[in-house]
Amino acid sequence: MLEHYIPIGIMILTGIGFGVVMSKASEWFGPKNPTDIKLSTYESGMEPVKSARERVSVKYYMVAMLFILFDIEVVFLYPWAVNFRLLGLFGFVEMFVFIAILMLGYVYLWKKGALEWE
């Protein structure tokens, strides 16, 4: 039974190896003549005004997480739309329930003030 998993293991090792080799390729083959100017901080051609370690509002991360969370609904909506006719009424009702739950989540977050930027 273990021999059925050997191709999967080979694919995983190949993927990890490819990722490591590609991430290190520029380091191995790239030019290696660093100067003080090349190693200095570059920010749109301007000298940095503040530290990069500045605090960011928690609301920024909250909005980002909510965007990712609710954007994942597309992952479920796309296959449903492709198989809409095959699923029939049952699929329509199930997707309606799914969207209703998402809308309740939006309303809950809106009422809690999670979508307010200030």
Could you describe the largest sheet, including whether it forms a barrel?
none
Oligomeric state of the chains present here = single chain
Number of domains: 1
- Proportion of helical residues: 55-70%
Radius of gyration: 24 Å
Catalogue the unreliable spans.
none
Helix vs. strand class: mainly alpha
Question: Any key phrases for this structure?
Answer:
118 residues; mainly alpha; 5 helices
Structure characterization notes:
The protein is mainly alpha-helical and 118 residues long. It has one domain: Methane Monooxygenase Hydroxylase, Chain G, domain 1, CATH 1.20.58. Helices cover 69% and strands 0% of the residues. The chain has helices at residues 6-29, 36-39, 58-71, 73-82, 84-112. The mean pLDDT is 84.
Summarize this structure briefly.
The chain is an all-alpha fold and 118 residues long. The chain has helices at residues 6-29, 36-39, 58-71, 73-82, 84-112.
